[in-house]
């Protein structure tokens, strides 16, 4: 049975057995504190969220982000940009029917692209990246790109390459790549500015320009052209690769367990049928499918250490005092793979999220989007995309692996920041 625990993080389980749920490590010259297990992470990030709300240091990442934008900034800059982004995302449909309809439309477009593969083997990575990329483009840039648009493809290639580089020892290559990605955003922003109607914002970039104009006499305003580009870049990174990688990993896992794929398709046929598109209202009637999607996220533990936090002041915690500014790494895999909450945590088992009577079982230990003040701002969007894309694909296609399911390896590639599935190709056969 494959396990998604990458070897580089398995050592944290061993260290916690020896040193407990809070321990210090050195990442190069930097001293960091690792939080291991649900209780320690909940106490820090939820119960004492304000004290642990700063963004910690990240090798290479700080050079790339310059501590600007939403994800890597701190203090008042972070608070204002995050609040503005959340409001804007909601205004443009996140969590509402309007964005659901956009995702359904993109799912339809994706199904047509899959149909064009004509049951031949292909790597789903490209199509899934384009699909999730277009959803975020609709919110941020107010447009949909064709999957063969050259500028869109170049941007998607950069995004994908950044994940690969960031997950390798060659992180210093991130900077020129990130600059090229920001160039794409800057060019789009200039087009927006030239056609802006302040009374009718079309998307996130328009809204940001309007906010900049409102604060043009405030010399200390965080709403600058630079933060516009960095914030938009953050939304793309958060909105494309994580969801796309989860979908891709999920399709690999379901190839290994065709009986689980079959049960999901039976539930889709019973609740949705074949003649209409799946919608979010269906999820409450589809506990098994919901459990499978949750189990995929739990099992793969996509970002094993989350993103680094830091304490905003000298902070007494358990039997220690953590000095102000110390980087904190919450070991999310230790929560998602907690054997008390999820028996046999390294096995893929949808029963982890089902009661004995087959109804869906919620768990406080399910925190793939992290928790507290820095929880992923796109969580509701990602959850909607995962459900609608998965159900749309499985409603229309049967997964056909190229090898014996028993031989499919679902352990991740050796990783530093993110658990990525091994490259694969498959056939998708119309049902």
TrEMBL record:
Keywords: Endoplasmic reticulum, Iron, Membrane, Metal-binding, Microsome, Monooxygenase, Oxidoreductase. It comes from Phrynosoma platyrhinos. It holds the Pfam family p450. InterPro entries: Cyt_P450 (IPR001128), Cyt_P450_E_grp-I (IPR002401), Cyt_P450_sf (IPR036396), Cytochrome_P450_fam2 (IPR050182). Transmembrane segments: none annotated. Belongs to the cytochrome P450 family. Its EC number is 1.14.14.1. It is found in: Endoplasmic reticulum membrane; Microsome membrane. The keyword Endoplasmic reticulum applies. It is a peripheral membrane protein. Its main location: endoplasmic reticulum. Its cofactor is heme. This is unspecific monooxygenase. Gene3D superfamilies: Cytochrome P450 (1.10.630.10). It comes from the Eukaryota.
